[in-house]
Amino acid sequence: MHQSAAKWIVSLLRERNIPFLICGGLAARGYGSQRDLHDIDLFVSGEHFSSVVQAGHQFISKAAAHRQEEGWDLTYVQFKYEGVKVEVGNADGAQIFDAENRAWVALNIDFSRYETVHLLGLELPLMLKKDLIWYKSVLSRPVDIEDVLAIR
User: Whole-structure pTM over 0.70, yes or no?
Assistant: First the structure.
C-alpha cells in the first residue's frame, strides 16, 4: 500500500519538476529503521506548495492549512491515496518544538542536501541522516527516539 502511495506522489511531483525531500518514518526506513510506516512525509518549497495541493486535489483528506500540532508548526496538506496518508509540508517557515528547551526552532529544509536511496521500488531523495537525527532528537517523541536509536 505504501508503495503505490509513494509512486503516486513521486510521479505527481516529478511530472511537474518539483524538488522534494522525504523525511519522517520513510526516511528513517531508508537509514535502517524497521518500524511500521504510518504515513509518507515529505517537504516541498513554498513556491511549489500550492501546485502540489492543486495537482492532488481529488485525494485531499486534510485541507492545506497552517497547523501547530504534535511538535510541528507548519503549513501542510494531507492526501489519502489507497488508504495511505501522504503529508506534504511547505518547507518555508516550518518549525519544530524543541522538547528539551521547550521552544520552537526553525526546521531549515535544504533541498540541495539529500541522499538518494532505493525504497518502495523508487529512487527517493531522503533528508540527510544527520539532519534527520537532529530533528527527530529535537522533537523527542517516542516514535522519533525509536527511529534515532534504530538509525544510529
Answer: yes
